[in-house]
Amino acid sequence: LRKCQPDLVLMDINLPDIDGVEVTRRLKLAEQFAGIPVIMITGQSGKDMVIESLNAGAADFVVKPFDKPTLLGKVRKFL
Q1: How would you class 3 by CB atoms within 10 Å of its CB: exposed for 0-12, middle for 13-18, buried for 19 or more?
Q2: Which one of 9, 17, 62, 69 is least enclosed by Cβ atoms within 10 Å?
């Protein structure tokens, strides 16, 4: 991220060493990345997971499986 600042981040919640919610929280704490929208992607559709993601700074949430138009619509909303 330091070499190329993205316009948007698609973040899976289930990552190998750290969960995507924590990565999002850390991104939002870093001044240079705080303004980048993060769309969370997960197979967990529970209300608590959605709330935790949004509280961490996620701009939106997509539940797997999703179709291409759904994802593209959310991406376009932030670009």
Answers
A1: exposed
A2: 17
Sign of torsion, CA 76 21 46 17? positive
pLDDT per residue as tens digits for the range 32-46: 999 999 999 999 888
Indicate whether this model's pTM tops 0.85: yes
Q: What is the CATH number of the domain that holds 45?
A: 3.40.50.2300
Domain for residue 21, yes or no? yes
Query: Is residue 72 within 8 Å of 39, Cβ to Cβ?
Result: no
Counted domains in the chain: 1
